[in-house]
Design a protein that fits this description.
By secondary structure, the protein is mostly helical. It has nine helices and no strands. This is DUF1041 domain-containing protein.
Length: about 220
């Protein structure tokens, strides 16, 4: 009996170390992704240029493909259902904790870049759904950290929607408006009016399209 007990403890220790190693490695992948997303912080240099250069939620899709592939590999190579579920529970919890700390703790007072909102929203929702399908229970899925995280993401999504609405409802003057004002000024010159008046009108036309300096 003592021999079997020691054997069981030894095997459990091996399983625990293997599981811990897998979760650590998966966590490092997510940490690397969050470092990449940090480049899009509003205070980071060239964040706007980076967002233009990348298609929508590319980073998020890459990560979900990584998760899906490894979920499938674990199911294929590990036959102990209890071990599989334990591994999935730990992996899911680590992902939520890492994203929660990155977003809710480290950026509590910061507004997210639109690209960050899109990627994180996609990742969190897909991870929740995919791990639910793998048998992770709701007491593991819907923790306080998850609720806090999804609430913040929904707030950021609403903020981005408002920004987009404001941008589309406030069109800026186009080139035709500028050319039209200039044409009217040149017309005044050709009709024999004072040159100073015509030049003043042209200058005024340009000034209407230049940013106003604050006093």
């Amino acid at each position: 009996h003592e021999y079997h007990t020691k054997t069981d403890e030894f095997l459990e220790g091996i399983q625990s170390r293997i599981t811990g190693g897998i979760i650590t490695r998966f966590g490092e992948v997510l940490e690397g992704l969050l470092v990449r997303l940090a480049r899009y912080d509003e205070t980071a240099m060239f964040s706007s240029i980076l967002s233009i250069a990348k298609p929508t939620d590319e980073i998020g899709k890459e990560y979900i493909e990584f998760c899906s592939s490894n979920l499938e590999q674990i199911r294929h190579h590990i036959y102990d259902e209890l071990l599989v579920l334990s591994l999935f529970d730990s992996w899911y919890s680590r992902q939520i904790r890492l994203i929660h700390d990155w977003l809710v703790k480290d950026r509590a007072q910061a507004s997210l870049h639109a690209y960050q909102v899109t990627c994180l929203g996609f990742i969190v929702k897909k991870v929740h759904g995919d791990f639910e399908l793998q048998g992770v229970t709701h007491d593991v899925l819907d923790t306080r950290q998850y609720q806090s995280l999804i609430s913040r993401i929904q707030t950021e999504e609403a903020t981005q929607s408002i920004k987009i609405g404001e941008a589309t409802s406030s069109p800026k003057p186009g080139p035709k408006s500028l050319l039209g004002s200039m044409a009217g000024s040149f017309s005044s010159l050709s009709n024999g009016k004072l040159a100073t008046s015509g030049l003043s009108s042209i200058t005024s036309s340009f000034s209407n399209f230049l940013p106003k300096s604050s006093n």
